[in-house]
Amino acid sequence: MSARPNPAWVHRYDERGNSSGGSISLSQFPFAAIVGADDMALALVLTTVSPEVGGVLVRGEKGTAKSTMVRALAEVLPDVEVVERCRFGCDPRRDERCPDGPHDDAPTRMRPARLVELPVGATEDRVVGSLDLGKALAAGETSFEPGLLAQAHRGLLYVDEVNLLHDHLVDLLLDAAAMGRNTVERDGVSVSHAARVTLVGTMNPEEGELRPQLLDRFGLTVEVRASRDPQHRAEVVRRRLAFDADPIAFADRFRPEQQKLRSRLHDASARVASVRLGDRALATIARVCAGFDVDGMRADIVTARAARAHAAWCGRDEVTKDDIRVAARLALPHRRRRNPFDAPGLDEELLDRLLDEDPDPDGPEPDGPQTDESGDESADESPESRNTGDDGSFGQPTDDRSTTPSASGPAGDSSDGPSDHPTDDPAGDNQSDNNAPTERPSTVGVAAPNSAFRARTFTVRGIGTGSAGRRSAAITSAGRTIGSTRRADGAQRLHLPATITAAAPRQHERGRRDGRLRFATDDVRLRITQGKESNLVLFTVDASGSMGARQRMSEVKTAVMSLLVDAYQRRDRVGVISFAGAGANLVLPPTGSVEAAARCLSDLPHGGRTPLAEGLLRTLATVQVERLRDPHRRPLVVVLTDGRATAGPDALVRAREIATAWPTLGLQTVVVDCESGRFRMGLAVDLAARMGAEHVPLEQVAATEIVDVVRRSTGAGKAA
């Protein structure tokens, strides 16, 4: 192992996956100087010691040094020995089955471990590799151009904002990280190469969640929150300012601690394969995973691997309960989520009880040595450095370990309070007083939603060009090939048959008599693919007093919650507009976080008159703003109302005027009819007809209800 300081080598790529200048040496903030975030530091260390753990997902609010810590980790990684001139960074001591091989007696060299940063907009071709178009068109050779997975082999692959990455790319990265190989079968290329990468993803949950299926594929997960301790926060600022003032001097100050971390990582990586995982330790891991009711067996495997890595990091030769506890805290929280509104976290009291349930209490506990075999290296470290103890802990303990309350938890009193909204006037035209615009005092209630159901799917008509998702049809970078084009608008792949077809008629004029086809730049054709896009789904919710009657508001919230689950699964952005009393409010600006939408919905009060016109106008204003921010994301408006309009002068007339002009706006709209009772006035039906919107009774929002209606109709037809 090299004893010299190891600079952080970072490979940066633009949104199309092209290198912006190759490897560059950066002056990174030292890993040993980072204050707090102990769980994140430990998770990064464990997956570095044993890449088979499966990577780390870091969830946290903005400004918590997530990216800083990941980039700093590269500087303490040991150098790696690679085969000279191998494009895939092969290990000369292993049979890598390299496409550039065999490497018998090939010269080798030492180089720093790489940190490859993957942008959110990278294409699949640049991630896995693809046909070398230059050689294919110029020389007619089928040659493979390595992608980012080859660049990151035996190093770190870092994806910031991984929750915004296309789902199929996340699946692809996790598959490669789990298998340790990347296999490409496309465009006439058949290549398989080693891709042992340490995958690290960071995300801000406020910007959207990963699906549970993808969460499960990450080995470890960590929640990062900023400390609320003033002294702790002051130390963070102090070190950051010192680094900004003189990065070189600051790095020199922590160089001894950095070298100790590098040496310890090297020793732990060499030791992990020999760490013993006994039968009792395996039984304990199985008991813990079963006790937390996690799905599948991946949790057991990851916990076992992480426990061995932690034992190696602490200098032990055998896994102990402490190792299992640490591993379970990092490997299980994200695997307990059953729906997008479940808060991540782990019941540590239950974990302790499961660990103490020894199936053989009279047998000896296989405790390994409690001291680090490499010596107590933390005793002589500077108090201001990021100390690492024998138990694998880092620096100062964080005091922010509380779990986030469930977004779908109780929202308060579910009873509907009395309202001054008159329910005996169907139109509500006489409920406003032009000379007295103020309303009578009313009691505001908060209804709690019930359990969500599988909702009916609503889509936007036509073909869009928005971000990839799972709702409406669109021209996307991945999907079914429907044609070809000359214009390169972004992520299209080569359409080889169309390119050959375009070049074939010109072979004679290009002087070809036999042999390979002769291509020109004008011959290149790119694929046009059709897939699904995500949309902007705006929920415009009538929260007036009439909605509180007969527990209707609880049913409305349940329907919206179910539609939110559908929006989560289809990768949409969602916003919530509430209208009640004298006006309408954007209570949740459009966001990718359905958890935030669920919290907003649960706490949404109801009561007062019905300002339907104001609700529609606020919806229109929100759509206009969002179109400026993202012109390609098509909106879907879902209005949940009973059709009444009672607030302000000429309330119903104004609402109908807006509704009549609505079709000219080109907005795909669904009116969910919330009117209840035996005698219905059909106001929501009239509203939907004026708006050119799809009318859906509240009872038919559930997908199962639609199926039942069809079955009943089919059965009735057969009986007739």
TrEMBL record:
Q: Which residues form a coiled coil?
A: none
| Domain VWFA span(s) in chain numbering | 536-672
Q: Which keywords accompany this UniProt record?
A: ATP-binding, Nucleotide-binding
PROSITE patterns in UniProt: VWFA
Q: Where is the composition biased (Low complexity)?
A: 404-417
Q: Which CDD domains match?
A: vWA_Magnesium_chelatase
Region Disordered: list its residue ranges: 1-20, 354-450
Compositional bias ranges of the Acidic residues kind? 373-382
The annotated regions of Polar residues compositional bias extend over: 429-441
Top-level division of the source organism's lineage? Bacteria
**Annotated GO MF terms:** ATP binding
What the record says about family reads: Belongs to the Mg-chelatase subunits D/I family.
Q: Which PANTHER family match?
A: CHELATASE-RELATED (PTHR35023), MG-PROTOPORPHYRIN IX CHELATASE (PTHR35023:SF1)
Q: What is this protein called?
A: Mg-protoporphyrin IX chelatase
> From which source organism is this entry?
Yimella lutea
